[in-house]
Amino acid sequence: MSITLTESAAQRVADFIAKRGKGVGLRLGVRTSGCSGMAYKLEFADHIEADDLVFTDHGVSVLVDPKSLPYIDGMELDFTREGLNEGFKFNNPNVKDACGCGESFNV
Fold first, then answer.
1. Cα(83)–Cα(43) distance, integer angstroms
2. Is the pLDDT of residue 104 over 70?
3. d(CA 54, CA 60)
4. Is the per-residue pLDDT at 83 higher than 80?
5. All residues at 6 or more sequence positions from 41 whose CB lies less than 8 Å from its CB, including other chains
6. In the predicted model, is pLDDT for residue 35 greater than 80?
7. Alpha helix ranges (H) inside the chain
8. What is the pLDDT of residue 78?
9. For site-directed labelling of 22, which of 36, 47, 76, 107 has its Cα 20 to 30 A away?
């Protein structure tokens, strides 16, 4: 079981945490949403919960709650720039289908 970050994603998260001036890492999970059933949730974590699973890659910690892990296990988080657009990209091998707008997915 693992979650990985590309070097560019890790650098972006580290930069955001440095600008915030606090934080232990990035909290990654899923929630029920959208037309395909689930959506990713990303937020900065200021502390580690007792049941959090912690994955560290390129010096950045990713915290995942146990209920979300089966849906994102094996996922790679990337940060990409395409023209004027930039953002995190979720390379999740568990996704079977995604909605047309890219907001939600199902496994």
1. 25
2. no
3. 10
4. yes
5. 27, 28, 29, 30, 31
6. no
7. 7-20, 69-72
8. 95
9. 76
